[in-house]
Request: fold
Amino acid sequence: MVSRSVHFSVQELNELAQRYLPRKVMSEFSGLRIQSGGSVESPIQELRTCHEPIAEIVSLTFDGVRQMRQAGLDPSVAQAAINLVVDEAVEVLHLWQERIQELARQAFAKLQEERTAANPQDEAVYQAYALRRWPQFEQLLNAGRPLSEILLTVTDRKDCRVLREGYPAWYQMKYGLKGFDAAVADMHKQVDEVETRFMTDRERKIAATWQEIEVGTQRMQTTFNQALTAITNCRDHEPSRTPIPLWMPSPEGENVVWIG
Reply:
């Protein structure tokens, strides 16, 4: 008799593969999926450890893929199982990316409330001040005076807000969109430095936390990209030792956690 090779459809392969999926790994993924939707009392504290579930997702993926490759399954079934593990990991990873973005929004909103409470302003008084002060700044800018020089004339904290609100529109009217984002970012940086002269200790602490969240969320985007690459590479390659950036470098100087 001539033996015939058996060909399975994708659906049939997936159904077969489901029977052999690593139960502990898939259970851990389910737990991380549930955690990604939980509420928290302190979004800032949660953000400071948000690299941990991402590192765990990568570690679980590596473990699950290795188990499937070493299970002695038919190669097509093993590959289907690996794909299912990777698919689940990618889904959970995206859920955690969304959670981190939402936590950052909550943290910024909380800090804005604290910032406003620490520096209350009478809006009517400010608007009257801005109407008088902005034309003076605009005249200096139109005369070609650099922002750094103009900031030396700042004697009232309200000047910082006047510049933040007026400068972007002035730049766009003067130069269009060419270099707009960089110029506005530089303006905010310079104005922030000047404003610290007028801040209380409490406000400086709020500002430092604000900056931490800005830097941390940027680092977490890198973390997400690193994790996504490491996970998806597992479809066709052996898991490869991967550095996962921490939310912020540790006091000891540790910058990443290695997943192998």
